[in-house]
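Subject: sequence -> C-alpha cells, single chain

Hey, anyone have a minute? Need the predicted structure for the following. Not urgent.
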Amino acid sequence: MRLYVCTLCQLGREGFADTLREAMPAAVEVLEIECMSGCTRDQSIAFRADGKTAYLFGEITAADLPELENFARLYAASPDGNFLDARVLGSLRSKAIARIPA
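Reply:
Had a minute. Here:
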C-alpha cells in the first residue's frame, strides 16, 4: 500500500511525510509527491493499493494521525478498498475529496 503526501501543502513543506512514516504500519510506503491539486483543502494525502479503490483526503492535520493509522489498517484488510459503512472512517469521512475506483 502506498500513501502519497503532497509536499506543496503546508504540512508537506514542514516534513509531514516523515511524521507519517513513523506513525504508519510497516506495510505502508509513504511517498512524497509535488502536487495532488487539492490546494483548496490544504494538506492532501492519498491511499492507493493495486486492485483497490484509492482515497484522496484533504484538510489533514497532525491531529488526524490516529484516524490515518486506523484507516491504513482497515484499508489493508479490505479486499477491494471499499467499506460498506463509511462511519468506520471516523473524522476522515468528512475530509474525503475523492474515492477513485481501482
